[in-house]
Amino acid sequence: MARKRGRGMAVCWYGIARPAPADRAAAWVVIDDGGSVKVVTGVAEIGAGILTAVAQIAAHEIGVKPEEVVIGDNDTARMPGPGHAGGSRQTFMVGNVVALACREARNRLVEVMAKAWDVDVELIHTGNGEVWAEGTNHRISMAEAVDNAKKRGVVPVGSANFGIAPSARLDPVDGSGRPWQSYVFGCQVAEVEVDTVTGEVQVLGIWAAHDVGRAVNPQGVEGQIEGGIVQALGQGLMEDYKLESGRTSTSGFARYILPTSLDVPQVNSIIVEDPDPTGPLGVKGVGELSLVPTIPAIMNAIYDAVGVRITDLPATPEKVLMAIRDKERQVSHTAPQAAE
Description:
Blueprint: E1 3-16, E2 23-31, E3 37-40, H1 50-62, E4 69-71, H2 90-117, E5 124-127, E6 130-133, E7 139-141, H3 142-151, E8 157-164, E9 182-195, E10 201-211, H4 218-237, E11 243-244, E12 247-248, E13 266-272, H5 294-306, H6 317-334
Parallel strand pairs: 3-4, 10-13
Antiparallel strand pairs: 1-9, 2-3, 2-8, 5-6, 6-7, 9-10, 11-12
Helix pairs in contact: 1-2, 4-5
């Protein structure tokens, strides 16, 4: 047969946020006139969907619709710094600090309304842009509640800092310790088809199960998983970057092949929610995690299909075909000779 199929699996863990030093993030939140919510933090959107997640978190914590949340620009000269956009830390650090700031702002508003209605604070609820007292007929809009608070000299504003100092010093004997703020885990299975005549590898499907803590936006999480898989697909099978004397010798994209939509396999994302205990939301991160086990899963699938190990990336058709031919020659040399 010219084409052979195989499956491979790989597991991984990944540390998120900053290692060693304490990672920090800060935010300001105010419930403004009209019942809208303004979130002020220097978060940078680099395509991972953090602004959508922040809007969802603020809306949930305050009790308004996401479209009622306004997020300030990211000029850290005028607002708190959230830290860098990397290390799969944005949802973990920024999401948690925004939640804390929102809770402080909401508590200020709730305390005012509890006094105005002469009820216990625990009976005040917020949701869908309204504020009401359980077991009573008191129910007003968020805009009315804000107006009520300001007339009493209270601005429903909140601020927060969030950060964790990990145990950066590892035990010199057994390596135990916690150099990262949080950890995520994943497992992937890849199915491939290898053409034994040309050496071409086609990835037919990826099954990816990832622990993301609490999924704020499941569709966004799936997008992150799929994006990491496509990036790893290119690194593992196509993108051949060469250096000569410290300089790029790959002339252009004619030789540096990138995956297209035709190369992307069916990705089956499985979101595992194991809430992280270190933050108020239980969130973790997923941005870089899905890239880690993709390549070893594909390489294991190639081995399962044709019995050769590719250890020099990318696994181009030339390398795969050469490995297959080398294996065939070794088998022929070691096979017992027929009796004369």
